Each structure stands twice: as C-alpha cells, then as structure tokens.
C-alpha cells in the first residue's frame, strides 16, 4: 500500500461515537473545543500556542487533507452524540518500514467514556488490516496516566522510556513508548 491512497476511514464500533474525516467547515467547532480545553490540553500537548484562532484550525485541517491525499497520514475527528469531541490520527507514516504512530486528544468532559480506546482500536484494525502496516506506536508523557491507560487496554507492549523526549513549553518531558506489531495484532 506504500504508494496507494488512504481510501477509506476507520469505523468506530461504539454507540454514539463516530470517526469522520475532518473538513474545513469543522474549523470553528474544532477551535472552540480546543479553546474551551486549552488549560487542560496544555498539560500534555505541545501545539496549544500555535492554535490561537479558527483560522489556525483551518490550516491544520488543510494540512491533514493534503497529507491524506498524498497517503502520508490519516487524521479524523471524533464525534460523540453528534458533537465534536477531539481528534485521532497517525503522524506521518513511514511506508518504507511499514510503521506509524498514533496521536489523539479529547475534550476533558468526555474522558472516561472509552472514546479514545475505541477510536484507537478502530485505527489499529485499519492500519494492520487495510493499510498493511507492520508496527503501530503510541508515545505518552510519563505523567499522563490517562493516556498511558489506552495502549495498556489495547494490549500494546511497553518498550521503554524515552528521556527528555519532548520540549513542552520550556520543560523537557519523558515519554513511554508502547507498540504493537502485526504479529501481536493477529494473536491477540
């Protein structure tokens, strides 16, 4: 699948939840959710300072559309009962080595409903069965216990801790690396 298009989207199997392609007309809703959750998201995500307006969200969505068209990455919005709830997607896919990493965020008030775990499960199914990747990784800050719970629930293996892996607003944070290979996926 290296040079082919990412032609479909993962399907989440959870009542009330839906993964949908991000479209430019989602920018206002996306930015409003980011802005309402700014303090909470800033604790673990590095991009809050460059997301200052709906136009910034529009630019991000445009980038994801271009990445999808070039088969470089796949990002979707997460909706809960018709309401925009967050995003999940791959960082740029390494087609040569058939691997990708997942990133996600969700509104603070929608945590604990299993949305991110279900969305990750849908992405794993898509990435292993449709895109034919061999490896999927998730990196989580060592202080972000809620995010770490997701790969653990999915049966991903903890492969180590990356020291001072990310500059998060002037402080370096460590990351845990979780991974699943295609053979792990087939045997779980």
Query: What is the string of SSEs from the N terminus onward?
Result: EHHHEEEHEHEEH
The number of helical runs is 6
Assigned CATH superfamily of the domain at 17-132 = Gcn5-related N-acetyltransferase (GNAT)
Helix-and-strand structural type: alpha+beta
Give the overall average pLDDT.
93
* CATH-derived architecture of the domain at 17-132: 3-Layer(aba) Sandwich
Using the alpha-carbon principal axes, give the shape.
globular
Whole-number radius of gyration? 16 Å
Trace the largest sheet across and list its strands.
1-2-3-4-5-7-6
Number of E-type strands: 7
Low-confidence stretches: none
Largest sheet: 7 strands, mixed
Strand content: 25-35%
Q: What share of residues is helical?
A: 25-40%
**CATH structural fold name of the domain at 17-132:** Aminopeptidase
How far apart lie the N and C ends? 24 Å
CATH hierarchy, class of the domain at 17-132 = Alpha Beta
């Amino acid at each position: 699948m290296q040079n082919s298009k990412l032609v479909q989207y993962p399907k989440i199997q959870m009542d009330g939840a839906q993964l949908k392609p991000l479209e430019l007309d989602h920018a206002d809703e996306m930015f409003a959710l980011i802005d309402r959750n700014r303090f909470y998201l800033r604790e673990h995500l590095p991009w809050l300072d460059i997301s200052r307006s709906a136009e910034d969200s529009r630019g991000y969505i445009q980038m994801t559309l271009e990445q999808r068209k070039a088969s470089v990455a796949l990002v979707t919005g997460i909706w809960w009962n018709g309401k925009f709830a967050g995003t999940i997607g791959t960082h740029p896919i390494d087609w040569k080595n058939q691997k990708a990493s997942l990133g996600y965020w969700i509104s603070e008030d929608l945590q604990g409903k299993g949305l991110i775990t279900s969305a990750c499960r849908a992405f794993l199914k898509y990435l292993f069965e449709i895109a034919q990747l061999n490896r999927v990784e998730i990196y989580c800050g060592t202080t972000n216990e809620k995010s770490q719970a997701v790969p653990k629930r999915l049966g991903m293996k903890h492969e180590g801790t990356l020291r001072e892996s990310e500059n998060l607003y002037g402080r370096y944070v460590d990351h845990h690396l979780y991974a699943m290979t295609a053979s792990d996926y087939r045997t779980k």
